[in-house]
Amino acid sequence: MASPSSERGAAGATWRNWAGDQSCAPFERVRPRDREELAEAVAAAAAAGRKVGVAGSGHSFTEAALTAGTMLEVGALSGVIDADRSSGLVRVGAGTVLSELNEELSRLGLAMENLGDIDRQTIAGAISTGTHGTGAKLRNISSQVAGIELVLGDGSVRELDDGDLLRAARVGIGALGAISAVTLRCVPAFTLHRVDSRRPRDEVFASFQESADVNEHFELFTFPYADSALVLERNRTDGPPRPRGRVAAYLNDVVLENWALGALSAVGKAAPRANPALSRFAAAVASGSKATDRSDRIFANERRVRFTEMEYGVPREHGPEAAQRVIDWVRANSYPVFFPIEMRVTAGDDALLSPSHERDTAYIAVHQYRGMEWRPYFEAVESIMNEYGGRPHWGKRHFQAAATLAERYPSWADFLAARDELDPGRVFTNEYAERVLGP
Known about the structure:
By secondary structure, the chain is α+β, with helices and mostly antiparallel strands. The protein has helices at 35-47, 98-107, 123-128, 163-169, 201-206, 208-214, 246-270, 275-285, 295-299, 319-332, 375-386, 402-405, 412-422, 431-437; strands spanning 5-8, 15-16, 23-24, 28-31, 52-55, 70-73, 80-84, 89-93, 110-111, 145-151, 157-160, 178-185, 187-188, 191-200, 217-222, 228-237, 289-294, 307-315, 341-346, 361-369, 391-392. A hairpin with a 6-residue loop joins strand 2 (15-16) and strand 3 (23-24).
């Protein structure tokens, strides 16, 4: 058997996440080409006393993937391994990027029932952090998982297809083992019609619950210093996809939503006092639009402007109030932030550490442009969310620890029991895992 392709690290081996604000210098970076090489790399690292971290696309804003030991980069474990169109069960490599998965599923006449608004994550990274889309009757991406193939700390392979171990591994934060493959429950391909409209924020918050119920996928963006909200409504349609032309897509997705956003953000960074005016200007030019296309193309947005992010899930009924309190704090403190606040909804699910565990959830996400001060803003947001029993998105920044998190998850002890069974030697741990889960 060929040895895994690896890069040992001092000079030039630093790993950074997408935002560029998390980095580490692993002892070695290993890029296994298949499950056997993945298992071999884990076993070798454990035998040498090194901790193991797994890196996907680096779209997490936390320290979850950081390690001074062996970093596994699983991008080569990608593509559809097996598919049953009749049942919708599709087995894919853990390193499969969502955008590539969507193309392969489309060729099979299948689709994911729900997705987030970024499709650059690997499937393993997306489920491990509790990534979600929006939809009052739809759960997060991990709820679409029927099975997980996991490489344990001794290099053995475990197939999880039911029970608490699967419910733990579906949102495992990288602390249970290295995922090598995922079996997904997919649905027949479908078309979505998307309508974006600008409305007064007070009206949007007042009708938030009703809008979440009547639309299959509902979300909103609102700039803290403006008084309007951009509402996104997506619903299934029987008509065929009508993709935009390349020029129209480029002008909207790249020029308007990225170049213009990046330029305004850079101005706000250079002149912090200008952020309120910039926010009101951006809100004013956010025009309504419509699109009808393949579901995954409607879900996903182009994201080229770098930022850092915090997102909390609170009981759905408290979402508008909690979001309004964030806006009030920003204004009361004249805090220099340009990026909008995003709100989405999901149904409750049964993954043990899902932020939506056993409760319908409103998600509130706040962002800050790269290089700008973010900590006071995020600390204030977290303080507000704590009052509603908020649970952090595991891929976004937060300041919680095991002592503050345990009481928010009814199945916390069950997750710890699963961790003890799957990784008793704590091969898959780092400072972040020890902070949020305990040593």
